[in-house]
Amino acid sequence: MFVKFKIKPGNENMVDCDGMINTGLKRTAHNCDISPIVESTTDCVITFAKDKKLDVGKYIVNELKEYISSCARLAWGMVVQTPPLTLEYGNKPKYMPNQHELSGIQRESITSSTVLTYIWPVLREQDGGRVMCKGILTPERAITKRGTSFWK
């Protein structure tokens, strides 16, 4: 899909091309073809599951594709916003009260040896921008105490 912009004669130098492109992307984000992203991501997840000797039936693949499609559509919409929105997550995050809430642990219980993990990412305006929604951290032991973690 192409986005058309009208420019008044004589005002060609006053056009903010970047702004026009961003506006076009925002207006058409819901129509963007994200199928290559969905297919590639689905293939990666299926390969991962097979490597872990997990049974991945046709029903699961179809449901997975629907979920991945929803995630990809949301991510694309976040990226084309002005300013773009980002999800912040990572390994072994440090608790910061202005960015995180805690689940399964009290703030006073955190020591230098406490390993935390995200159960919900931080939503920000741009990389390092204003926190729109705090992330939620929990002790890693709370996730793996029932046995070996699925992801390891």
UniProtKB/TrEMBL annotation:
Residues 20-137 form the Mitochondria-eating protein C-terminal domain. PANTHER family: MITOCHONDRIA-EATING PROTEIN (PTHR21771:SF1), MITOCHONDRIA-EATING PROTEIN-RELATED (PTHR21771). This is Mitochondria-eating protein. InterPro entries: MIEAP, MIEAP_C. It holds the Pfam family MIEAP. The gene is LOC102807734. Keywords: Coiled coil, Cytoplasm, Lipid-binding, Membrane, Mitochondrion, Mitochondrion outer membrane. The keyword Secreted does not apply. It is found in: Cytoplasm; Mitochondrion matrix; Mitochondrion outer membrane. Belongs to the MIEAP family. Its main location: cytoplasm.
